[in-house]
Each structure stands twice: as C-alpha cells, then as structure tokens.
User: What shape does this take?
Amino acid sequence: MKRPNSVKALEDLGRVRLSKSFFMRDMLYSEVGNFFGVPNIPDDPDLAIEAASRLCTELLEPLQDRFGRISIRSAFRSCEVNQLCNEKQLGCSRNEANYAAHIYDRRDADGFMGATASIVVNGFIDYYERTGHWQALAWWIHDHLPPCNTYFFPKLAAFNIRWHERPGRTIKSYVPPKGVLTQPGMDNFDGSHASEYADFIAEFEKGSSSI
Assistant: This one.
C-alpha cells in the first residue's frame, strides 16, 4: 500500500482491520497532529500495519479479553508528528529512539520491527484511583502476556505497552515508586506475582458478576 494522498486512500488505510477489535484508524489519532495541523500518516503503511497487527493481536486483544474495553491514548506517530512533539517538549523522544516504538513505519537501528501504544484499561481505573496500586496491573501483564515492555504513568494508570520482534520484559513507571519495577536479572523477576494483583482480580470479578 502506498502512502495515502487522498481522503479516500486515508479512509481505506483506516479501515484495515488489525485484529478482531482494532482497526488502523484506532492507531492514527494524534492530539499533537490535530492541534498543529500535521497529518499523522505512515510513509510505509504496510510496515505500520504489520507492526500494529502484532501489537493488537498479541498484547491488546488478550488484555481486552480479560478486563474489558481498552482506550487508546496514543499509538502510531509519523516522523513529522513525533519530531514536532519532541521539539516542543511535549513528551516524545527523538525520532531515532522511537523507531519500532511509536514510529511503526521505521525499523530500529538493528533492523527490527515494533509498535507501542499508550493505553488505559478502563476496568482498572476505579481500583487504581482508590488504592494507587498500579503494580497490580503491571504484574498481571508480566505474568500473563507475552514478553513486552511497559511504562506506567500517573493519570488513569495509563501505560505504554510495546510489541517488538526482539521483545524486552521490563516494567518501568513514572508513578511512585518511580523507576524500574523489574527487569531480567532482578530478584523479583521470576515466579508468580499473584499476590500483587489478587485484590484487584477479586474486585474486578465481583464487579463483573454483579452486572
């Protein structure tokens, strides 16, 4: 697929189904792009679609199957949008650091493909806002999903989740305690962490059964 150069072509790109629940259009929304009038369109749609499909199929769908609706806060960024975001200090890394992360249509320096989305698990919000225990969801993901990197933020317990051809398995956070919660080699990396999310799971399942 060529880079869209018409409304119809962009509509066709947006209609590409990435997984059972997600379409490419879900990946393309950008507040930075909208505010500054910079189109958030991939230069290599085929690469972006392939990476986004893996992200959705392997990570987002299992998460949504377990906990219900996921809200995507930020996903794909074109090089132009990401560079502008970086230059204006709006929370984006430089382009090269975001290849195979938020910039789906570029491989990283080692030639690997990847994709990142910033998401909110709606069913986790109430528990998080009452307890502040963001680690519950972080450890559930660590124990149940394929290897991936996550990075948690204070508002709504939103977090970046990254699919990559050479996956990492690190949990980081801007929420106290800030920094690295776990990564390979740390004492807390292996084994079950069920005690960390038992209360959340019980509360979630109780709420689900009462609907």
Q: What stands out?
A: The two ends are 44 Å apart (CA to CA). Residues 7-209 form one domain. The chain has a mean pLDDT of 96. The first strand starts at residue 70 and ends at 74.
